[in-house]
Design brief:
By secondary structure, this protein is α/β, with parallel strands linked by helices. The mean pLDDT is about 90. The structure holds adenosine-5'-triphosphate.
């Protein structure tokens, strides 16, 4: 449809999304889509939306798309492709060049260009840009900017029309241009799998495009991209390496999917993988395939751990005396295991402490800190944890002023930081919640830590392993080369807390749990009933203890009425109902409201991934909406509407996300529907988040089945074996 841009209604500058009014003579515009009241003109006015729409009336637009109906906005045109039609007149070209679409061209500049080149102006800019220097008063820098901007515009249009059959938005298309610039079209045609390097273009998307372009199913490029994709998928499941045959089989399945006869043979895959290994893009370590970076991390981390475990500790002096003084000062008598833990930390360079909730880990840390201060007269101690919440709890529990997130201690505060910028030189480093640390972060930590630092790693090995690849804490324990103390006596009012007793039972795979006020199970017959009961319990508990002390923890994020997403929307609409458009914000189909409880999902600008906050106000500034969020530590932060991708609602969280946090009361749905997800360490992690009360809702047999599923160590990693081997080699 040919139309002209009339008025911008909304724009999201971060992704180029725009809603606007357009005018046309095209009578195919549905009657309900025509705007009549405010735009009485001979033209037909309608609303359209899309990405990177040229916001100028200096040219005409040829738009392709579909009419879409929404309850809120009525019928609008969803623009999928948009071509600029520059009128073939000097005035038309001046209008186009000075419309703002081409950076650095004012009307005066545009006229200078048309004065010189007339109707050939656009052709000159495109094909003979150097000739622009014939125009007096145009600096080289300005010419460069004009040419760059012009070719970006043009290339983008080409990319978009090339990709139009594949449902790729303009926004995504512009990411291709940002990555490959003027080479974009060449890449799309010649080496389409290079697109996998662009954010938002996974192998599956690219494969569809590439196979249609010209790529043969058994093209090496395709096999290589598929192997890389599958390696990344394995890593996303927590594996550090993949056995060679498993990778070959997975490639065979993926590459032949959708073909009636074998399109890629096992031999072709084998040969392509051999080539990948020869070229150094994959590593074959005795039949185990790694991404080179993963291999390097595993080897270097293992070396670093073995070196530290063999290094003689500093001469501390009278550890026993300091230990006695610390106990006297704190008026506490540590158990034998606790004393052993303290001694271990001063007799070794690297030590591990593991224990479940209430087993006295924090108490031991306090004494370790006391002993260190006593022996050195110094406070050169770094406390760190993988999440902001865990760091905060660590500081509170030990009575230290600060504890950092590992990211901030290592200078990895921005998402783009791939390399750690800070080295850690403290005399004593204690890391809590170590089970959450993946191989990437552990590798960075040990690479950037002074070799003389005394390191104490604390965690609960029975909790879920890290989200990222590896099973670092468990592997360290299993290496049997790093000194460890397991704390297993529960101190916290033993016998009274069923949570702690049941945690112990679950840890051991026992299903005969104790039920009572602090550990409830509510049977429900269906998922709908479970949701109803979650709502009822949540409101009761919030009334009793307040919003921030009650947390719903669900195994699954999406799909189903008891998924995190569904529970969040349901609870929010009751607890914090709609109060008007001006108090709401939208981001990518999600809706946020003033007073909503939210969670931050990314480390940035002093706010840590996992921090909980509340939207305190919603305001508009310069036509843009903002949310002012107050985080639970008092930090306030404003987010523009288009930056809300970093937060989500937090009435319910996934169990994975809750690691490192604690709440007074947790409510957990357990249904056979999640059978494949319900594992012993998942249930253990969920219930140990509660300090005072656990309410499980659903089917008891699902809980029992989950407790019996113990696959916590099924992650491909050779860290333990490597540490053992290096230590053995050095002894
Ligand atoms: N040796 C001890 N004698 C008496 N009480 C102790 C001893 N050690 C710890 N406690 C008490 O037991 C409770 C739990 O201890 P602590 O907080 O150190 O455990 P934790 O393992 O850090 O627990 P969590 O992981 O749940 O935070 C505390 O109230 C603490 O004072």
């Amino acid at each position: 449809m040919i139309c002209t841009f009339a008025k911008k209604l909304f724009e999201n500058p971060s992704n180029g999304y725009c809603v606007a009014l357009f005018q046309t003579d095209d009578s195919s515009v549905p009657e309900e889509a025509r705007k009549k009241d405010k735009w009485p003109s001979s033209k037909i006015t309608f609303t359209g939306f899309g990405y990177k729409i040229p916001a100028t009336d200096a040219i005409q637009l040829d738009i392709i798309g579909k009419w879409k109906k929404s309850q809120k906005y009525g019928i609008q045109f969803a623009i999928e492709q948009c071509a600029e039609i520059v009128p073939p007149t000097v005035e038309g070209i001046v209008g186009y060049l000075s419309s703002g679409l081409i950076r650095g061209v004012s009307e005066i500049t545009a006229r200078k260009i048309t004065d010189k080149f007339g109707l050939r102006a656009l052709e000159i800019i495109e094909k003979e840009p150097k000739r622009l220097s014939e125009i007096r008063g145009l600096s080289d820098k300005k010419i460069e900017r004009i040419v760059e901007s012009f070719s970006r515009n043009k290339e983008l249009r080409n990319i978009v029309s090339f990709l139009s059959p594949y449902d790729i938005s303009l926004n995504k298309a512009s990411k291709i241009y940002d990555k490959f610039g003027v080479k974009s079209m060449e890449i799309l045609n010649e080496t389409p799998y290079d697109l996998c390097a662009v954010k938002g273009f996974g192998f599956l998307t690219v494969d569809k495009i590439a196979l249609k372009v010209k790529c043969k199913p058994n093209d090496k490029m395709r096999i290589r991209a598929c192997a890389d994709y599958l390696m990344t998928e394995f890593e996303a499941k927590g594996h550090v390496y993949v056995p060679q045959q498993e990778l070959r089989d997975a490639c065979f399945g993926q590459l032949n999917q959708g073909f009636k006869i074998t399109a890629v043979t096992a031999d072709e895959i084998r040969n392509a993988l051999i080539e990948e290994i020869r070229a150094g893009r994959l590593v074959n370590n005795n039949g185990l395939i790694y991404h080179p970076m993963m291999f390097q991390r595993e080897v270097e981390l293992a070396k670093s751990l073995s070196d530290r475990s063999l290094l003689s500790p500093p001469e501390w002096g009278d550890v026993e005396g300091a230990l006695d003084r610390a106990q006297a000062k704190r008026e506490i008598t540590l158990s034998d295991a606790q004393c052993e833990a303290v001694r271990m930390c001063f007799h070794n360079n690297l030590s591990l402490i593991t224990g479940g909730p209430g087993t006295g880990k924090t108490t031991v840390l306090k004494v370790i800190i006391d002993v260190y201060r006593d022996l050195t007269g110094s406070d050169d101690i770094l406390l760190a944890a993988p999440t902001g919440k865990a760091a905060k709890r660590m500081a509170e529990g030990t009575g230290m002023l600060t504890a950092k997130t590992l990211h901030s201690a290592l200078g990895l505060t921005k998402e783009e930081d791939k390399e750690a910028h800070c080295s850690i030189k403290s005399g004593l480093v204690i890391v809590d919640e170590m089970s959450m640390v993946d191989i990437r972060l552990a590798h960075r930590l040990f690479r950037n830590m002074d070799s003389k630092t005394t390191v104490v790693l604390v965690g609960d090995v029975d909790q879920l392993p890290s989200i990222g690849p590896g099973n670092v804490f468990r592997d360290m324990l299993q290496s049997e080369c790093i000194p460890v103390v397991r704390l297993d006596t529960v101190f916290r009012q033993s016998g009274v807390s069923r949570i702690v007793l049941n945690a112990e039972k679950i840890r051991n795979g026992t299903t005969g749990l104790f039920y009572g006020n602090d550990f409830n199970f509510i049977d429900t017959a269906s998922e709908e009933e479970t949701l109803e009961m979650i709502k009822r319990c949540y409101f009761d508990e919030v009334k009793k203890s307040g919003l921030e002390h009650v947390q719903i923890l669900a195994p699954r994020r999406e799909m189903g009425e008891t998924s995190v997403l569904h529970i969040n929307n349901t609870i929010r609409d009751i607890i914090n109902p709609y109060v008007g458009e001006k108090n709401e914000l939208y981001y990518d189909g999600r809706r946020f409201r003033i007073h909503d409880k939210i969670i931050q999902n990314k480390n940035m600008d002093g706010i840590s991934n996992g921090d909980i906050g509340v939207i305190e106000s919603v305001f508009t500034n310069d036509d843009e909406k903002f949310a002012a969020i107050r985080f639970s530590d008092g930090t306030e932060k404003c987010y523009a509407e288009d930056a809300l991708g970093v937060i989500s609602l937090a009435y319910a969280l996934t169990i994975h996300k809750s690691q490192g946090s604690e709440y007074s009361t947790v409510i957990i749905p357990v249904l056979m529907r999640y059978y494949h997800m319900l594992k012993r360490n998942l249930i253990y992690t969920a219930i140990t988040r509660a300090k005072k009360k656990v309410i499980l809702i659903g089917e008891k047999r699902a809980l029992m089945a989950g407790i019996h599923q113990n696959d916590s160590s099924k992650r491909n990693s050779l860290l333990a074996e490597r540490v053992k081997q290096y230590v053995g080699d050095k002894k």
